[in-house]
Amino acid sequence: MYLTAQLIEDSPAGKAGQRVQFALNPSDVHIAHEIDTFLAGFSPQGYRADEACPVTLVDKETDRFRTFGSNNVFQQVEVRTSRQASIREVDIETSTSLYLVEERALGAFVPRVTQDQATFDVKMGHSTRILEALGLDREIRIFGTGGLYTTTANWNANNVVALTGGGAQWDDPENADPILDIQERIEASAQPITGTYLNPMVAHRFLAADRVRSHMRQMLGDNAPNADVIGASGVQSAVDFVIPGLPPFHVVAGKVLNETTGALDYILGDSVIGVSFPTNGQPTDGKSTMTAITFRERGLSGNGFTTREFEVNSRGLQGGTMMVSGHAEDEQMIANNCGFLLNDVLLDA
Q: Residue 49 has what DSSP assignment?
């Protein structure tokens, strides 16, 4: 197929007025349009804040919650008596604390003309963007620098330790002893550790350590681990793992953009966090406790999350839709002597 054209001036193809033929290229017969069978993007790498700091719904933006002190269980009292002596008495040790939720919300304005002419669902795209931004903010508040679990001051002093040089860091595979480091932290906790959180880099160094491999060989033999060890039941991610004798390991793979360097940094740095939660759910009887919890106001929706839309006619010629989503919550340490914070586990973090 050819295209016939008349030259308007002399050129290497011929003289002015002469008709010449050109071979047709794809660009001559096709106008590029956006295809509707492909739409690529990014996804968060697994947020773990909701499982590490579970949400409980509350009716009011502020109220008090009661906890029983550890002396009720661990303080020894004299129980010996005699036939005629007065019986010694004990009192329960209890206190109340205040929670106060803080509203967190984001919105997106979608002009009506944009929505009408878009080649994809722009409202759905904006809704997803809002939800992911809220999720990222929560993940940083729980696991990021200065977060609930990574702030040393939030923990009992006996439950926090930082590794020092001289082979202690886990990226020295021949000399490091991650198993012992975690075992010592478990021993310091006032309640059993039910989960351990660490980022992928720390997890990789942990698994590469010679003494970790020796421990696994001691417990499992030389056979390949079965499904109960990698991707075990009760372990929510394929990158999570369990090692006999230790609580499950949960990998916090979420990343955040470093505005200074432009790199994507892990939200949880080179720290390892241990948490303790009761097996029967949220404490209600004063006989169990938990490391931390998120109090979230139930709100008008009843589920703790508010999503709404409203028309904004004062913006632009044709107006548009404002989409708003958010929640109101307060995360708090309940028992800072249950669990642990192990800092500086990598020398080259």
A: H
**Same-domain status, 27 and 63:** no
Considering the domain architecture, whether residues 278 and 203 belong to the same structural domain is answered as: yes
Written as one string, the DSSP assignment of 115-173 is HHH-SS-HHHHHHHHHHHHHHHHHHHHHHSTT-TTT-GGGS-GGGEEE--SSS-STT-T
pTM of the model: 0.85
Tell me the CATH number at 256: 3.90.1690.10
Secondary structure class of 213 (helix, strand, coil): helix
Bridge partner list, 103: 328
Kindly give the parts of the chain with pLDDT less than 70. 1-8, 10-14, 16-17, 20-25, 28-29, 166-167, 222-238, 349
How distant, in Å, are the alpha carbons of 52, 118, 188, 207 from that of 169? Answer: 25, 52, 20, 13
* CA pair distance 104, 262, nearest whole angstrom: 26
Residue reference for tokens 């372990």: 235
Q: What share of the chain is helix, strand, coil (3-state, %, to 5)?
A: 20, 25, 50
